[in-house]
Amino acid sequence: MFDKLPHCLVIGAGGVGVITAYSLFIAGKCIVSIIARSDYDIVKTKGYNINSCDYGNLEGWKPHHCYKSVEAAAMSGEFFDYIIVTTKNIPDGPTPVSRIIEPVIESNLKLCRTSASYRNKVCNIVLIQNGIYIENEIIELLETMNTSSAKVSLISGVQLIASTKVGSANIIHKNTDHLTLGAFDPNDKTAVAYSKKFIEMYKNEGKNYVELDTDAKYTRWKKLLYNATINTTTALTSLDFSRCVQFGPETTEFGIVKPAMQEVIAIAKSEGVIIDEKLIDFFYDITLNLVYKPSMCVDVQKGQLMELEVILGNPIRVAAKNEVKVPHLNIIYNLLLIIQGKIKESRGLLVFDEKTARVVKK
């Protein structure tokens, strides 16, 4: 099935993306390229500095290839067997994921149409991102493209990693990388086969932990127990979760987080996904003593847009469709909508007219 080393393109050179790229690189079973964007000049000349709990202190690491943009990768003439997306998933932002990755998907499909040597290639899109139903946006994109000459598979990646970009080309990685990977559609045999191949490329014994996901829908709802409640609470307070609990022990646990987790379980059940309630205490307890600011908290503090819609908006819309009451999630979501609006205003993505006290541009 594979006549040469697969070529992996990582889109999203933040904390998750760089460790993902390095894990593939050090295993030595594929060619690794990365979209570095703002860090491009530094990475090309000096490489990445990585402080990793899995791999130690690394200075000046460089992937096999580095591109300044997705468009540059698309124009390189390379076929990318795996397009690995580790960017933030922000459909309400200026560049949704489908728009980001469209050029490189199109370049892959063009090679399949025009060159006999690429005719039997599979274009695998790996979404290592938070949220539920994030694949729908990509499916809609593919429906507008000519995919008759190639097979395209969609692969889900759910990662627990605690890795953060703390400066230009500077990564701190605090928790052992645990990646669960599998087909969004468990009946897609091609996606299942290429998920297994990716796992073999990604695995570094004694360093990271990677397993096949046979039920990506369940896995994504399960992780939402953490993201929709603990991650969002830290974003609202701009505190790590340990401080949230210590500063408001009764309120945080029984007034916000655990009731919100119950609501996530109820929405999942309405979609045919059964989550064991024991996982409420599991996620709460493992986070309680980890002095770490989750991704949404970091985004707020950096003035960056949050993954609000895929983490909270989508499940709340599912709840409305299935008539599930979610008062705690609704409060968290609506408060974060205000903060997201504040960030959008600061970044010029909307304009608030103080004379009319109205938003005049979106």
TrEMBL record:
Residue span(s) of domain Ketopantoate reductase C-terminal: 217-337
Keywords: Membrane, Transmembrane, Transmembrane helix
InterPro entries, per the entry: 6-PGluconate_DH-like_C_sf, 6PGD_dom2, KPA_reductase, KPR-Related, KPR_N
One Pfam family hit: ApbA
Transmembrane parts of this sequence: 7-28
Keyword NADP included in the entry's annotation: no
Entry keyword Membrane: yes
Any GO CC annotation of this UniProt entry: cytoplasm
Limits of the Ketopantoate reductase N-terminal domain: 9-185
Name assigned to this protein: Related to ketopantoate reductase
